[in-house]
Specification:
Elements (H helix, E strand, L loop, with lengths): L2 H16 L3 H14 L8 H8 L5 H7 L6 H16 L5 E10 L9 E5 L4 E14 L4 E6 L5 H4 L2 H7 L10 H15 L5 E4 L1 H4 L2 H9 L4 E5 L4 E3 L5 E3 H10 L7 E8 L2 E12 L10 E10 L6 E9 L4 H8 L4 H11 L11 H23 L9 H11 L4
Parallel strand pairs: 1-5, 5-6
Antiparallel strand pairs: 1-3, 2-3, 3-4, 6-12, 7-8, 9-10, 10-11, 11-12
Helix pairs in contact: 1-2, 2-3, 2-4, 2-14, 5-14, 8-10
């Protein structure tokens, strides 16, 4: 079956129960197809022009005024991904991405840290959740971070259509909310992976302990651990003691996956630890993974693992190496599928655009996974290029 036929079958199946009228069904299918095409700037007008619409009205109506359940679409994206990528040893990966915006009207926009530039920008921040297995990886859930200044401003909320039940939540709390949805949906995964912005949050870790969720998350050196002789100490002190022991017999060189430049090889070691005030789930244990750069031995990163007691350390290292996959999803979503190229300002249109872009990425991921083994000869970049050109409208 051709990719065009696969795409038509997918959008037809999803649109059937999602919309009551044929017009939004067709606009939905057209928008997914346009996002997959080679359009320089993926706003409603250029997407409409590519697909052959005289104006952007149909897409704008679909995103704003049409009546349909965007969370039902999110659930369809999840079901589609899990049907093709789901594995018991899959992982969920949390990270946030940013969309730099002008003005102060777009929902959630504020002067805040922007991962794109590494400094404070006028932007929206989007905590995202990726599902990854050995077959592929794509977004499975999303949130829009609403800063306190927005959450507490009734006038701005009303203009942007923020629902009354939406209250201020930190980014780690939003990830915990998404994780709860994945648990309720029965998503198959073994670990949650994240960077230290999430791993340092005790409430997110507590959620995982309470629900017996395994995780491998980067943590800062001030993570409080129970000291060998009582009391507490930061994880950095345990690291210092380990480094003082010297080289022999401490480090093991291992790959934690393949990146764009080949195998990602580091020196690793591990310590059984007790996190102060945060016991693991029954039958689970905490392990501190220490990763050291081969090229620059002074560059060290810490990971806290929460896994069933007796879990082999190489398995935890493999999980730690999965974190970068969400960065690839962020890059492809933005650069290739228009994830943040929307021109919408309100709550509902934002969620609709982002979720439709998630479906487009899910389709590419599933089609890539279905490529014959011989296609691997082109390399990862070659496969992405093939995928992006195949569905052109």
């Amino acid at each position: 079956m051709s990719w065009d036929t696969e795409l038509t079958a997918l959008t037809t199946r999803i649109a059937g129960p999602l919309f009551t009228r044929p017009e939004p069904r067709q606009a939905f299918a057209d928008l997914v197809r346009a996002l997959l095409a080679d359009v320089p700037r993926k706003n409603s007008w250029q997407l409409a022009d590519h697909i052959g619409h005289a104006t952007a009205n149909r897409f704008e109506h679909l995103l704003d005024r049409a009546k349909w359940d965007v969370d039902a679409l999110r659930d369809e994206v999840r079901s589609y991904l899990l049907a093709h990528l789901g594995r018991a040893d899959g992982v969920l990966i949390a990270d946030d991405t940013s969309a730099i915006k002008k003005g102060d009207k777009s929902v959630g926009v504020a002067g805040q840290y922007c991962g794109l530039t590494g400094q404070v920008e006028n932007c929206q921040v989007m905590p995202m959740l990726t599902y990854a297995s050995e077959v592929g990886h794509a977004f499975v859930n999303r949130r829009l971070y609403l800063p306190e200044a927005w959450a507490n401003d009734g006038e701005r909320r009303a203009r942007a259509g923020v629902p009354e039940q939406v209250v201020f939540r930190t980014k780690p709390q939003l990830v915990a909310d998404m994780l709860a949805e994945e648990l309720a949906a029965g998503t198959l995964f073994r670990y949650l992976c994240a960077d230290s912005g999430y791993g340092r949050d005790p409430h997110l870790r507590a959620f995982c302990h309470e629900h017996a969720v395994g995780y491998v998350m980067a943590v800062p050196t001030d993570l409080p651990l129970v000291a060998l002789r009582g009391g507490t100490e930061p994880a950095g002190h345990a690291l210092d003691r380990l480094l003082a022991l010297g080289q022999a017999g401490i480090w093991e060189r291992r790959s934690c996956g393949t990146g764009t430049k080949g195998m990602r090889v580091y020196d690793w070691t591990a310590l059984a630890v007790t996190v102060a005030g945060q016991p693991p789930a029954p039958g689970y244990a905490h392990t501190l993974l220490i990763r050291r750069s081969v090229a620059a031995p002074g560059e060290v990163e810490l990971f806290l693992a929460h896994a069933p007691a007796g879990t082999p350390v190489p398995e935890l290292i493999d999980a730690a190496g999965m974190r970068w996959k969400i960065e690839e999803n962020n890059e492809h979503g933005k650069d290739l599928l228009g994830l943040t190229q929307y021109q919408v300002r309100k709550w509902t249109p934002w969620h609709r655009h982002v979720t439709i872009a998630m479906l487009a990425l899910a389709f590419l991921t599933v089609m890539r996974a279905a490529l014959p083994t011989g296609a691997d000869a082109a390399g990862d970049e070659g496969k992405d290029h093939l995928l992006l050109e195949a569905p052109a409208g």
